[in-house]
Every structure is written in structure tokens, then in C-alpha cells.
Write a structure and sequence with these properties.
single chain, alpha/beta, Rossmann fold, 13 helices, 40% helix, globular
Length: 288
């Protein structure tokens, strides 16, 4: 069975806070998703941004079948030790030849590691539901988006975005809020597939994230009051509990692409299917 490495870049404090509010850290959410999709797989979770984080050499990373990068409250454009450690980790992932997948900040870390840029969104946040994501010409024929309709909605919450893709990257999808919603990055010996949205998260988890950032959403103009944010969070929680309830589909303006778990996870399933073909030969271990 495959052995996956999950890299979560939340700080220890943020991991504890997320467990308090959502029941799991971002890495634990990813692990639960992968265990459901591939029963029997082995999963190791690491935190490359931590002060005492273990440094993985490319040859060790090459022993894993795939690496997953989670979302994070870290701002990739900031010059901080936590960000620097996360980017260094991702550069070693690229050097290892092990295929990788990331969502939200995971995409942003891969972009920065390969030479692209990330910025604070200039206009507003994207929170709750990323609307009308559409594949580019390249994306329509790309296996990451196989099974996606011409336009779809997805769980999302972010105030940062990719500004420029690095050399060797292909833009696969975007929408009116965030131009770069999905991309492939080929860098060094590795291939990364990533999305700005969150295919690993259920509506209930997005509801918790929206509620936690209620003040920011009001400041960004996405809601008139924190009570409005709570109403939207309650709607998302209800959809999580009853995904087939058509009245909630109408109220939230979503369809099965957002409401149904198997559809929501399309990109992760496609990556898992193709990861064995994306993996290159393991790097040569230096002789002492």
C-alpha cells in the first residue's frame, strides 16, 4: 500500500486552535480524507515550519509515494523563519522526484519554492464558496481536472493568492476572484499539482473556518455583520449534514460539485490515480 507524507505548516498554536474548533489540524483533516479514499494507506504527518522541524533530504523524501501540502495561516510572501523552512522543505520535495499535491497555502508554497510570487489579494477575500471556477484551454485536457464540468464551485477561504506562476508551470483553472485557481508546476525533478480551493474539506469544516474569521469577512465587505457570517456558517453546516437537501442547494447556490463528497474530492482522486506515473526515479544517495 502507498505511503504518503503530509506537510502541515500551521504553527503549533494554530494546530491546537483548529483542533479546538474543528476537531482536527489541517494535516489531520488531510489524513482523514486520504484514509477514506485509499483504505490501508500509510500516512506520516510532519510540520516543516516548526522551530524544531526535522529536515528531510531529497533521497528520504524519495521513499514516499506522494507528498501533500495543507492550507495554513502563514503568509508565504513574508520573510519569516517559518516560511523559509516551509519553502526549503518544498524545494527538497521537488528535488526528490516525488509527486506532490497541495491546496490553498500548499499551492502558494510550491509556487514560491519554484520561483513564482504570492501576494495578499488586492481586492477582497474569497470565503466559503469559490464560484464559477473554469478550466483554461490547458486545464480542459489535463488529468487533474478530469471529470470537472466547464464551470464548478468549491470550498475556499483565503486572503492571499498566487500572483505569478514560476517557470515550468501551467495555469489550469481560474475564476473572477482569483485568476490562478489550479496549476501544474514542473520544477527540478518533481511535479506538483495544486489548487487554491480546498477539495479535502467538507462544508462543515469550511463553516468553522468562516465563523472563526467572521470579523475579517465583515472588514473585507463580504458580510454586513458577524450575525450574517453565522447564518452562512449555519447553512454550510446544514449542507454538511444533509448534502442532498435541494432547498440548501438553492439557498447556497450550489450543486453536487460542491455538496457531494465524491465530486468535491475530484482533484485529489485524480492525483492519487496519476501519482505513480508522475514519480521519477529516486535520487542517488551521496556516498560518504
Amino acid at each position: 500500500m502507498p505511503h504518503y507524507l503530509i506537510a502541515e505548516s500551521e504553527t503549533p498554536e494554530e494546530r491546537d486552535a483548529r483542533r479546538t474548533h474543528a476537531g482536527k489540524s489541517s494535516g489531520e483533516s488531510y489524513a482523514a480524507t486520504l484514509e477514506q479514499m485509499q483504505p490501508g494507506c500509510t500516512i506520516t504527518i510532519v510540520a516543516p515550519a516548526d522551530d524544531d522541524a526535522r529536515i528531510f533530504a531529497p533521497e528520504e523524501l524519495g521513499t514516499y509515494d506522494a507528498v501533500f501540502l495543507t492550507g495554513s495561516p502563514l503568509h508565504v510572501y513574508e520573510d519569516s523563519p517559518e516560511v523559509a523552512r516551509q519553502i526549503a522543505f518544498m524545494r527538497n520535495v521537488f528535488a526528490s522526484g516525488t509527486p506532490s499535491f497541495g491546496s490553498c497555502a500548499g499551492l502558494q508554497v510550491a509556487v514560491a519554492a519554484a520561483g513564482g510570487t504570492v501576494r495578499k489579494m488586492p481586492a477582497r477575500m474569497e470565503a466559503g464558496i469559490a464560484r464559477r471556477i473554469s478550466a483554461t484551454d490547458a486545464g480542459r485536457g489535463h488529468p487533474l481536472l478530469a471529470g470537472r464540468p466547464p464551470s464548478w464551485d468549491a470550498p475556499a477561504i483565503h486572503g492571499d493568492e498566487v500572483e505569478t506562476l514560476p517557470p515550468g508551470a501551467t495555469l489550469l483553472a481560474g475564476n473572477a476572484v482569483t485568476e490562478i485557481q489550479a496549476a501544474e508546476i514542473r520544477h527540478d525533478r518533481g511535479t506538483f499539482w495544486g489548487v487554491q480551493y480546498h477539495p479535502e474539506l467538507a462544508p462543515g469544516e469550511i463553516a468553522v473556518a468562516v465563523q472563526r474569521q467572521a470579523e475579517e469577512l465583515v472588514e473585507a465587505g463580504l458580510a454586513d455583520s458577524e450575525a450574517d457570517v453565522k447564518t452562512r456558517a449555519d447553512q454550510l453546516t446544514a449542507l454538511h449534514r444533509t448534502p442532498g437537501r435541494l432547498s440548501l442547494h438553492w439557498l447556497l447556490g450550489v450543486d453536487d460539485a460542491f455538496a457531494v463528497e465524491d465530486h468535491r474530492r475530484t482533484e485529489i482522486r485524480n492525483f492519487l490515480d496519476h501519482a505513480p506515473r508522475l514519480k521519477t526515479a529516486p535520487p542517488v544517495v551521496p556516498q560518504s
